[in-house]
UniProtKB/TrEMBL annotation:
Gene3D superfamilies assigned to the protein according to its UniProt record, in alphabetical order: 3.30.465.10, CO dehydrogenase flavoprotein, C-terminal domain (3.30.390.50), Uridine Diphospho-n-acetylenolpyruvylglucosamine Reductase, domain 2 (3.30.43.10)
InterPro entries referenced in this protein's UniProt entry, alphabetically: CO_DH_flav_C, CO_DH_flav_C_dom_sf, Diverse_Substr_Oxidored, FAD-bd_PCMH, FAD-bd_PCMH-like_sf, FAD-bd_PCMH_sub1, FAD-bd_PCMH_sub2, Mopterin_DH_FAD-bd
GO molecular-function terms, A-Z: FAD binding; oxidoreductase activity
Alphabetical keyword list: FAD, Flavoprotein, Oxidoreductase
Domain (FAD-binding PCMH-type) ranges: 1-179
Protein name: Putative cofactor-binding repeat protein
Species this chain originates from: Granulicella aggregans
Length: 288
């Protein structure tokens, strides 16, 4: 049953300072809404619990991509279309550009924001695996100040994050130090477009002399939160990727099986997700 919109309130202060003041004056009372690609679906389905919303759309302080020699800082209000079209994102952060192209339809990409994708905290979201392997740093802000946190610590559990009731995600920073890495991204879903992932993997690796010096693996839909596959990374570091890959692949599959906790749901089964995740990691290793 659709929601009765008359039961909801929406304010649009129009500036970042005004939004932060509203959150500070009534902590926990207002739910921020940016592009609305998640909240409006819940509203239409009659399952949006939040009754008071504060709009972040159109606030210029949140929509930007700043490039320096060492890093790129992305405002939380930056849309997926902004990310797809930005030349430095395309050249330096191909995994994030790929994730942006996966997210919904063109209309969704025009409205959906990177910050919203993070804060919504879905374990199946498209951008978190890339942000995890790039070791993104988040800036969280409130009327009382700002703090920086590693994105890897942001998710505390299913749909739970480090954000306080009076805080917003302000920006996502990525270091520009991945030029020597091999990158890989695959999303498996029901369709090629407009599909929530059954499982997705984002990966980076640096190889020297046929040996993996460093490897990073980020995953969607394999745990209760977007996850770095740390145990699998450790199992693969210093492993050979020369012609005989059997022992390396076996080590990856064993470690992956031990740290993944996929679920059965309407989109897929835990057994299928675990099998496909192993196949994707193997595909990445063979590509090295």
């Amino acid at each position: 049953m659709r929601s009765n919109v008359s039961q909801y309130d929406l304010i649009a202060p129009g500036s970042l300072a005004a939004v932060l003041n509203a959150l500070a004056d009534s902590p926990g009372e207002f739910t921020p809404i940016a592009g609305g690609t998640e909240l409006m679906v819940a509203l239409g389905a009659g399952r949006l619990e939040a009754k008071k919303l504060v709009s972040l759309w159109g606030i210029p302080e949140l929509r930007f991509i700043e490039v320096s020699e060492d890093a790129v800082t992305i405002g939380a209000g930056t849309t997926f279309t902004d990310l797809r079209r930005h030349p430095v994102i395309a050249s330096d952060f191909t995994l994030l550009a790929q994730a942006a192209s996966w997210t919904g339809s063109i209309a969704n990409q025009n409205r959906g924001t990177l910050g919203g994708n993070c804060v919504n905290a879905s374990p199946a979201a498209d951008s978190p695996p890339a942000l995890l392997v790039y070791e993104a740093e988040l800036t969280l802000i409130s009327a009382s100040g700002a703090r920086k946190v590693p994105y890897g610590k942001f998710h505390l559990g299913y749909k739970k994050t480090m954000l306080r009731p009076d805080e917003l995600l302000y920006s996502i920073q990525l270091k520009r130090n991945f030029s020597g890495y091999v990158s890989y991204a695959r999303k498996v879903g029901t369709r090629n477009a407009q599909a929530i992932s059954k499982v997705a993997i984002a990966a980076l690796a640096r190889v020297h002399g046929g040996v993996i010096e460093e490897i990073r693996l980020g995953a969607a839909s394999l745990r209760e939160t977007p996850a770095r596959l740390v145990a699998t990374e450790l199992a693969l570091t210093r492993r050979s990727v020369d012609a005989e890959l059997g022992p390396t692949i076996a080590a990856a599959r064993t470690a992956l099986a031990g740290e993944c906790r996929p679920i059965d749901d309407i989109r897929s089964t835990a057994k299928y997700r675990a099998a496909v995740a192993g196949n994707l990691v193997e595909e990445f290793l063979r590509g090295l």
